[in-house]
């Protein structure tokens, strides 16, 4: 998508053939990029959320293995890099998926062929992410067009949570892909952007990227969604996901579940945009089986933003010593609250039968243990 009119992706190979990313920690206030020269820098970039969002984590991790091969293309180096990167964030299945796909391709090759093959596959995965997101956006677009037909001349209000925009992917985004495509064809969309405490990905990232593209939007506090739904001000919710189970449970940023409950209570359709790599057929009961990332308490007790002089600064908002040791990064929305999954293969009911029919059995990936 565009930043100040110029097309960008979130990850690319620069003129020196180094992997470069947008360092999202500084958005929306500063647009800073970072070069990732070795596995340690990839580990930091994923763990400390310089880059984030399930699809992007998968692709950046794939590039991390390519860079590892450049330094040492042995089996030992490949598997060690896989283990290191796999341990960075537990919830988004795309991380396992991206690493496993790379290892399955590289391990059978002689070490001297691995660097070229690794960069080629990582680039292919980046391009594939872009086309899958575009494709699933077309299926979401059909849903938005349908609402537009029922409300001629009126705005279509779409609520989204966290950032499942292009910054969470290589391009287009998942939840935002349909929104960008609807906007591009002149449909009057308006997005309610949940701020998404504690890290505020909605306020800092979704609001920024929608604004850069010109999509009308309003930032709301996380607690406002239910009220807006009760007053008929939300036509549909579209969120992204970090992992969908074989029976259709959806893991996504903390707070998604509450939005799904409110949507259910108010007959507002609740859609989940899911590219194929985010489906994990090895998991059924999302609440019991998906590992939920436990994050630092400072995300609750502190906030970062611009101060009165325009400098980025961090302030404490809770009393010194208040316990903040419970900070789950994600929650699971049970399948029964999901109206449909918007996937690159088409719309899919969040049921075991519909998911199996559309996605079939997955080949077993080659996973290294994270411990
Ligand atoms: C297309 S991204 C879907 C999800 O990854 C997104 O909504 C989300 O939960 C991101 O979490 P984050 O912790 O910022 O990586």
Automatic annotation (TrEMBL):
Keywords: Amino-acid biosynthesis, Isomerase, Methionine biosynthesis. One of its GO terms (biological process) is L-methionine salvage from methylthioadenosine. The record marks 162 as: Transition state stabilizer. InterPro entries: IF-2B-related (IPR000649), IF-M1Pi (IPR005251), IF_2B-like_C (IPR042529), Initiation_fac_2B_a/b/d (IPR011559), M1Pi_N (IPR027363), NagB/RpiA_transferase-like (IPR037171). Signal peptide: none annotated. It comes from the Bacteria. It catalyses: 5-(methylsulfanyl)-alpha-D-ribose 1-phosphate = 5-(methylsulfanyl)-D-ribulose 1-phosphate; 5-deoxy-alpha-D-ribose 1-phosphate = 5-deoxy-D-ribulose 1-phosphate. One of its GO terms (molecular function) is S-methyl-5-thioribose-1-phosphate isomerase activity. Substrate binds at residues 52-54, 89, 201, 252-253. The active site is at 242 (proton donor). Pathway: Amino-acid biosynthesis; L-methionine biosynthesis via salvage pathway; L-methionine from S-methyl-5-thio-alpha-D-ribose 1-phosphate: step 1/6. Its EC number is 5.3.1.23. Belongs to the EIF-2B alpha/beta/delta subunits family. MtnA subfamily. Catalyzes the interconversion of methylthioribose-1-phosphate (MTR-1-P) into methylthioribulose-1-phosphate (MTRu-1-P). Also catalyzes the interconversion of 5-deoxyribose 1-phosphate and 5-deoxyribulose 1-phosphate. Part of a bifunctional DHAP-shunt salvage pathway for SAM by-products. HAMAP family: Salvage_MtnA. This is Methylthioribose-1-phosphate isomerase.
């Amino acid at each position: 998508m565009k930043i100040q009119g110029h097309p960008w992706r979130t990850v690319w190979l620069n003129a020196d053939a180094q992997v470069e990313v947008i360092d999202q920690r500084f958005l929306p206030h500063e647009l800073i990029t970072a070069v990732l020269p070795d596995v340690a820098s990839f580990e930091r970039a994923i763990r400390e959320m310089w880059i984030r969002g399930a699809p992007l984590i998968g692709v950046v991790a794939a590039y991390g293995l390519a860079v590892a091969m450049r330094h040492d293309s042995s089996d030992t180096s490949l598997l060690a890099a896989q283990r290191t990167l796999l341990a960075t964030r537990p919830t988004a299945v795309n991380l396992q998926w991206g690493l496993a796909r790379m290892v399955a391709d590289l391990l059978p090759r002689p070490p001297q062929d691995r660097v070229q093959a690794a960069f080629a596959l990582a680039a292919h995965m980046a391009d594939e992410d872009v086309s899958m997101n575009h494709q699933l956006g077309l299926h979401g677009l059909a849903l938005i067009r349908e609402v537009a037909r029922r409300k001629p001349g009126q705005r279509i209000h779409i609520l989204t949570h966290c950032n499942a925009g292009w910054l969470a992917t290589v391009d287009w985004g998942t939840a935002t892909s349909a929104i960008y495509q609807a906007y591009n064809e002149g449909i009057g969309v308006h997005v309610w952007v949940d701020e998404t405490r504690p890290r505020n990905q909605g306020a800092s990232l979704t609001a920024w990227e929608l604004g850069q593209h010109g999509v009308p939007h309003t930032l709301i506090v996380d607690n406002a969604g239910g009220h807006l739904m009760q007053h008929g001000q939300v036509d549909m919710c579209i969120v992204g996901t970090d992992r969908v189970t074989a029976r259709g449970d959806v893991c996504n940023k903390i707070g998604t579940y509450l939005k799904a409950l409110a949507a259910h209570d108010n007959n507002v359709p609740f859609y989940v945009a899911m590219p194929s790599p985010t489906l994990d057929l090895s998991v059924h009961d999302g609440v019991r089986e998906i590992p939920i990332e436990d994050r630092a308490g400072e995300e609750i007790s502190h906030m970062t933003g611009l101060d009165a002089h325009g400098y980025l600064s961090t302030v404490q908002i809770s009393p010194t010593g208040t316990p903040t040791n419970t900070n789950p990064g994600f929650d699971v929305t049970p399948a029964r609250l999901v109206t449909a999954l918007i996937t690159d293969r088409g719309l899919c009911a969040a049921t075991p039968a519909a998911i199996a029919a559309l996605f079939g059995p997955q080949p077993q990936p080659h996973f290294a243990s994270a411990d």
